[in-house]
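Hey, quick one: can you model this chain's 3D structure?
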Amino acid sequence: MLTQAMKRYQTKQSIQREMQETNKKNIQMLCSELNTLLLDKMNDRVEQAYLNQKKLKHQTNQLQFNAMELQKQSEQWLKLLDNFNQALKELGDVVNWSKSIESDMTRVSHTLAYAHKGYAESSSVLEGDTGSGSTTT
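Sure thing. Here's the predicted structure for all 137 residues.
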């Protein structure tokens, strides 16, 4: 009886070891699968982060390029505006000059008219004094 009990005990022990080994292998396999799934998921996230970083870098470069182009265009507009302002100033100077010339010509015209009127009056006075009725010009 003791031998049979010992054999049963050893059989049970053997069966339990086999079950433990089987369970151990199953757990190792499940852990390996879990590890693989977690690494795949992590790799997907790392890959997505890398792609996002790459996109951000490209967009940053594009933004810098656009900012430089905007600055160049703004400088061109400022130069154009300065040239336009200078042309307006020159036009204002020409208008002022033309008004000054017009004013001077009006004075000269009035002076000549006044002088001619004075000359005509003095000629008529001279003609009336001599009574000859002829005028010399």
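One thing worth noting: The chain is about 95% helix and 0% strand.
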